[in-house]
Amino acid sequence: MLNKLPSSISALLDARTNGHSLPAGLYTREDVFEADLDVFFHKHWICVGLDCDVAEPGDATVVDIGRTSLILLRDDEGQLRVFHNVCRHRGSRLLDAGTTIVSKLVCPYHTWTYELTGELGFAPHMGKDFDKSCHNLKSVNFKSIEGLIYVCLSDDPPQDIDLLERTMTERLAPYDIRNARIAHQTDVIEDGNWKLTLENNRECYHCSANHPELCVSFVDLDFGFDPESLGEEDRLQAEEHFRLYEKRTRAWEADGYPSAAVEQLSECATNFRTQRLIISGAGESQTYDATAASSKLMGQMTRKDLGDTHLWGHNSWNHFMGDHAVVAIVIPLAAGKTLVRTKWLVHKDAMEGVDYNLDKLTDVWIATTDQDADLVARSHAGVLDPAYRPGPYSRFSETNLDKFATWYIDRMRAHGY
User: Fold this and answer.
1) Where is the Rieske domain (predicted)?
2) Alpha-carbon span 263 to 400, nearest angstrom
3) Best label site of 63, 237, 330, 333, fewest CB within 10 Å?
4) The domain made up of 49-144 is a member of CATH 3.40.50.280
5) Which residues are CB-contacts of 168 (< 8 A; sequence separation ≥ 6)?
6) Chain centroid to CA 258
């Protein structure tokens, strides 16, 4: 049975038509879900958290990816560490889900005790000849890219994360994400496959009809439109918008703020895109009136008119603005269940009720995430229906979905499916 599994998935991959959504089984089948976890969440770089999740020595947080449990922590010297949440004795979990503060990592089963560097310091009743140094915690390959923590659970992580690292190190430096503070966090479980969650995020075809709060500040035309479907007035407005984009991008870059689109979406392992986007309306932030939610700007930022530096990967999307940032991390739970964990960041010294109003800070993306959860659930229910057939992507508004689906097929093939 196991020997037949890859060929069965391979048949689904073969069935995909370019320019169309994926065959139903690639969204719904349990064997595909297990393959996705192995390929995309174990053998590729994924975003799992932030430096400021563990801001102080002794801070620790647990992140679960399928059957794999990780501990993010900061050791006594202030160094970031990522370990497997597995005792080297008989495999017990060391820490429960959530955040905590620890001075050492003590296994609750037999009290094997580890330093925050991962070294085994105490293992009772194991005899004088027991070599503790052979039983340190297993560390995980990770990178902190200007405060965004990426891990790869493979011993052979993709090297092409270098472009992401070079690009975002420069772009994120002024926001000082490493030293930001998490003002709020939500966990929303969507009733849909993780790929539907990502597809929904990679297009704004649906935005004007479903995201009234977001569309105050977010320009849906930025991700494509059919010029022939627009009336004369709307077409002229769109043309003017893109002339303004070119002008703003040149001005931002002349002032030392990299802004042009950089993307690595095909023929690669590490999938990402970034660009500095214009914020509509008042032009300051993704809030209900497009003005800044926090009077204390992020990091070393001194301007509110620098738009939205967006970044997406295959399990995350992010928006970095002058006054705050929104970081969303996607974690598959089952073929039809996906966790979307959203964090709102502010300057480390910003005080709620003094420098910012929490409702204004969070309302837009709380509403947007809830709306998206409903859309993803509808999509998943549809692909489960026997009447579902892969439909054509819009060549104007959904080109990034076609690229994602093509990348998905290519990466599955690269790993033997």
Assistant:
1) 45-151
2) 11
3) 237
4) no
5) 145, 146, 148, 274, 311
6) 21
Q: Which amino acid is at 332?
A: P
pLDDT score of 7? 58
For strand 325-334 and strand 181-190, is the pairing parallel, antiparallel, or unpaired? unpaired
Match 């998943």 to its residue by tokens: 380
CA distances in angstroms from 145 to 9, 114, 150, 183, 349, listed in the order given: 34, 27, 7, 20, 22
Q: Both tokens of residue 218?
A: 């977010």
**Superfamily, domain 172-414:** Naphthalene 1,2-dioxygenase Alpha Subunit; Chain A, domain 1 (3.90.380.10)
Cα 359 to Cα 167: distance, rounded to the nearest angstrom: 32
Amino acid at 184: H
State which amino acid sits at residue 98: G
pTM above 0.90, yes or no: yes
Residues near 18 by Cβ (< 8 Å), separated by ≥ 6? 402, 406
Tokens of 137: 């915690």
Q: What pLDDT, on a 0 to 100 scale, did the predictor assign at position 227?
A: 72
CB 35 within 8 A of CB 9: yes
* Helix, strand, coil percentages for the chain (3-state, nearest 5): 35, 25, 40
CA 164 from centroid of its chain's CA atoms: 13
Region of residue 195 (left: phi > 0; alpha: psi -120 to 50; beta: else): alpha
- Domain limits of the chain? 49-144, 172-414
Q: Give the count of beta carbons closer than 10 Å to the beta carbon of residue 108.
A: 12
pLDDT score, position 232:
83
**pLDDT less than 50: residues of the chain:** 1-6
Cβ–Cβ < 8 Å for 149, 47: yes
- The predicted pLDDT at position 5 comes to 44
Q: Which helix (H) or strand (E) holds 377?
A: helix 358-384
Residue 228: partners with Cβ closer than 8 Å, 6 or more residues away: none
The helix or strand, by DSSP H or E, that contains position 311, with its residue range, turns out to be strand 308-313
